[in-house]
Amino acid sequence: MENAAFRAETRAWLEAQCPPSMRTPMPEDEVVWGGQNARFKNPDSRLWLERMAAKGWTVPIWPKEYGGGGLSAAEARILEEEMRRLDCRSPLQSFGIWMLGPVLLECGTEAQKAAHLPKIARGEIRWCQGYSEPEAGSDLAGLKTRAVLQGDSFLVNGHKIWTSYANFADWIFCLVRTDPLAKKHDGISFLLIDMDDPGVRTRPIRLISGASPFCETFIENVRVPRENLVGGLNNGWTIAKKLLEHERKMIASIGERQRGAERSLADLAKAYVGEKGGTVADAVLRDRITQLDIDQRAFRLTQRRATEEAKGGSPGPASAMFKFYGTELNKRKFELLLQIAGTQALGWDGDGFTAGELRIAREWLRSKANSIEGGTSEIQLNIIAKRVLGLPD
Amino acid sequence: MALILDADTALIRDTALDFFAKRSPVSALRKLRDDKDALGFSLPLWRQMAELGWAGFLVPEAYGGSDFGCVGLGQVLEAAGRSLAATPLIATALIGASALALAGSEAQKAAHLPALAKGERLLALALEEGAHHAPYRIATAVKRSGAACRIDGEKRFVLDGHVADLLVVAARSSGDVDDRRGITLLLVPADAKGVSRHRTEMADSRNAAIIRLQGVELGEDAVLGRIDDGAEPLDAVLDRARAGLAAEMLGTAAEAFERTLQYLKDRKQFGVPIGSFQALKHRAAAMFAEIELARSAVLAALAALDARTADAGELASLAKAKAGDALFLVSNEAIQMHGGIGMTDEHEIGFFLKRARVAQASFGDSTFHRDRYARLRGY
To answer: Do B318 and A295 touch (CB under 8 A)?
Structure first.
């Protein structure tokens, strides 16, 4: 279809099918993550998810046979632009969509794709990520969770940490050690594990923000069918790295997804610090805001350029650059918000603060994890130095 | 607007990269400097560039150019920036051509653009009067009496000012210094009576001059565009200058970075390449990121200028600020990472540092452009 025709058709469909309440800023408790225990605080969000999923537009570029929309990269961008134009909410947030799906599409067996991708696309199964362990953080390949192949199944034992939203998830994609004698990168496998097993327990971890988005996940004597092995035995590190590239791309856009209808820093600064002749009264603060604005815009332009250059391919090692820069930008944004709103941004609870002000403090603290999760900024810089710049070990 | 080059533009980029690497390496700039060359650039080389069509990239086809546009000229400038080539590309092909094409009358365009596109006429923009870029801070006065006008004032840091055939002079016809209104652009032949030129030696060994205008009498046909309304075309010309210069700076930053990266791989201390040290790796990776962002900003600005979108001014300031910051970082790190050898005149890396600061200061440094960006964005 011609792009112009596609745009017109898409716009008309969105205008007709997107419920009005799905075109307002999305409060945190209305975000839809799907899964067997999916919560829809606003009933319109269920309707919106069902309509989008029926079109395949929760995963626009996935093939139709797996629940996707079968759109070209150009069409997907048009859909994104039209959704932004109408302020349509994203119908579904999902680690299945952002991380596991692309890897299954590339490396999964036909049976794995057929079994898992449509359920991800429709938001029926919620996935979490079992990568880090207490002793394997930046040194991820040092992980110890054991999977022993016994006949047609693996027996898995181990302890994962920082598993985001594991307490709400149905399945976990896990890195496990299948050959303890091989070099550390060569003895790892990638397993899909159903968490509906009494041997899988999760425990939320309370963070400095007061929230508990991360968990510890304990896996004790859990049997996993061999067919849930992705990418071959002891080939897990290759799969892990591919998935990390998608994860980094996702985290790099953290500031982007939070944008939406929020007020600009400059407007907030005018409100909190004052205005003089149409400009932010505090010249130093104004310059800092401009620096961030300029860096954010140049960053978005670079994301766009990378998309145009890659034409829909794998993100590649450059994803490390986006992860590094995007998360540092997001941290800068929250530090600047603190500076702008002063003590009004430092309230913790109760009266005296607006809901938005209370959110700043919590989100500021949450943002500190951005440059740790998915590989620290230091790890990203290592990856750039080695894989992009070719600097020696 | 695409942020990737089409096939024609990619070919121009490749041609330009090859051209400057072979015919105008950094050693050519060193020779111009050491010989105290009177022109400060190679005229035969400029003729070759004109034959390749580069002088006429911003000249309409009706006047002997190709109207190929800013993205194309940006590729040539970026390649020139890699070898620090001293050429009339900025003053003539970018700024002079833009001033005539955007503000000139039919007669003015016909008189100058064909010669400019052939590389036979050099222009220079006489704008600045102080040590900082301030496009409306103009005291140089133009007074009209009947059909004649008379110009008095002094211009500084006029790029290619001492070799130009024709000066584009920004003068005040009404209002006060710093008023945007009341500026008039004029075409002043460099050999007009009352014009005196003094070449200044800058740190980057490139061309600039102080131009004194004392009782310069010209006819009304010298006015470029409309009287008192010169700021409008001036801003448009300056945005092209900023984005084009940002492209050159991007090339300079990329080259300085690549040379430094190679040095990190070659230079051994403690028995290993110094590039194996994490303290240097991380800084190299951070520079890579800054150059990537600058590249996107530069491409977006050039494309917006060609498409004449409403945010072209914003993007030009974005590009100049971002390229300026990237070049500042890279030029400093390049010296530090080269260690002692980088402090020697014999090594070429020092040329990049010197060019960096002059280019950063030209047409507004990063502070100027952040302020402008904020103003254009309404804060």
So the answer is: no
pLDDT at res. A29: 84
> By C-alpha distance, which of A76, A364, A379 is closest to A245?
A379
Measured between beta carbons, the chain A residues lying within 8 angstroms of B292 are 302, 321
CB contact under 8 A, A298 and B286: no
**pLDDT tops 50 at residue B26:** yes
CA angle (B369, B371, B375) in 5-degree steps = 110
- pLDDT at residue B22 tops 90: yes
Cβ-count burial B157-176 (b if 16+ within 10 Å, e if not): bbbbbbbbbbbbbbbbbeee
Q: What is the largest CA-CA distance in chain A?
A: 76
Residue A89 gets which letter from DSSP? Answer: P
Minimum Cα–Cα distance from A274: chain B residue: B379
Nearest CA in chain B to A276: B379
Question: Are A309 and B4 an interchain contact pair (Cβ–Cβ within 8 Å)?
Answer: yes
Architecture in CATH of A127-236: Beta Barrel (2.40)
Position B17 scores a pLDDT of: 98
Q: Which residue has the tokens 């607006």?
A: A354
Residue pLDDT, tens place only, A269-322: 999 999 999 999 999 999 999 999 999 999 999 998 998 887 656 677 788 999
Q: How confident is the model at residue A255 (pLDDT cuts 50, 70, 90)?
A: low
For residue A386, the chain B residues in CB contact (below 8 A) are 281
Does the distance separating the beta carbons of A278 and B379 come in below 8 Å? yes
In Å, how far are A280, B95, B228 from A276, measured between CA atoms? 6, 35, 29
| Residue showing tokens 């890195």 | A175
Please tell me the CATH superfamily of domain B232-376, with its number: Butyryl-CoA Dehydrogenase, subunit A, domain 3 (1.20.140.10)
For chain A, the distance separating the N- and C-terminal CA atoms, rounded to the nearest angstrom, is: 50
Q: How confident is the model at residue A262 (pLDDT cuts 50, 70, 90)?
A: low
**Contact criterion met (CB < 8 Å) for B370 and A294:** yes
Residues of chain B with CATH 2.40.110.10: 124-228
pLDDT grade, residue A258 (50/70/90)?
A: very low
Residue A28 pLDDT? 79
Percent of chain B with pLDDT over 90: 98
Q: Place domain A253-388 in its CATH homologous superfamily.
A: Butyryl-CoA Dehydrogenase, subunit A, domain 3 (1.20.140.10)
**pLDDT 10s digits, B319-332:** 999 999 999 999 99
| E strands in A168-209 | 171-177, 188-194, 200-205
Q: Which residue of B has its CA nearest to A309?
A: B4
What angle in degrees, to the nearest 10, is found between the helix axes of B70-82 and B278-307? Answer: 150
Angstrom distance (rounded) from CA A316 to CA A310: 9
- A385:B282 CB<8 A: yes
Q: Which chain B residue's Cα is nearest to A299?
A: B293
| CB–CB contact B281 A385 (8 Å) | yes
Mean pLDDT of chain A: 93
What residues in B contact A389, CB-CB < 8 Å? 261, 281, 284-285, 288
Domain layout of chain A by residue ranges: 3-93, 127-236, 253-388
Contacts of B282 in chain A (CB under 8 A): 378, 381-382, 385
CATH topology of domain B124-228: Butyryl-CoA Dehydrogenase, subunit A; domain 2 (2.40.110)
The CATH 1.10.540.10 portion of chain B extends over 7-121
- Residue among A82, A216, A247, A363 flagged as catalytic: A247
- Is the pLDDT at A235 greater than 70? The verdict is yes
List the CATH code of the domain at B7-121. 1.10.540.10
Contacts of B296 in chain A (CB under 8 A): 298, 301-302, 304-305
**Active-site residue flag, A309:** no
CB–CB of A208/A334 below 8 Å?
A: no
